[in-house]
Amino acid sequence: MSRREQIKMTQAEIAEFLAEERTANVATIGRNTRPHVVPLWFVPEGGELVSWTYESSQKVANLRRLAQASVLVEAGESYEELRGVLMECDVEVVTDADEVVRIGGAVTERYAGNPEIAVAAYQFIRVQAAKRVGLRFTPTHVTSWDHRKLGGTY
Fold first, then answer.
1. Rounded distance, CA 67 to CA 51, Å?
2. What single-letter DSSP state applies at residue 8?
3. Which of 56, 80, 91, 121 has the most CB within a 10 Å radius?
4. Integer Cα distance of 153 and 130 in angstroms
5. How far is CA 150 from CA 74, 79, 97, 143, in A?
6. What is the tens place of the pLDDT at every residue in 113-135?
7. Residue 32 pairs with which residues in a beta bridge?
């Protein structure tokens, strides 16, 4: 078996990894055809990732021109600890107000670490949603790696 095959994550490992990690680096293509890379908090939902952001953001302008992104989530402090998932995604810019509120609540709950905080923040989320859109990232290709599977050797 090749080293590449050895370090590949299973679907279950990918799901677990995405549930653990907190920040994705999202690359869209800007007007000048150069990559525009930004960090983004996300929530895994059934094989997709969702998030919300300001409607006036550069990433939204880019996604309205080309509804595709590369999404990288990675972890590890040394080479033998490196883990990551790189997803090529089709991206839906969600404008339905109720869905934007739902996504904003899911993001708030995940990063607050407490569902009660999200409930208490509902009014804030609703007010923020007026200026935001949801983003739904649907992977079309996934590459993963977990160097820990090599047992410290490469």
1. 15
2. P
3. 91
4. 51
5. 17, 11, 46, 17
6. 877 877 788 888 999 999 999 99
7. none
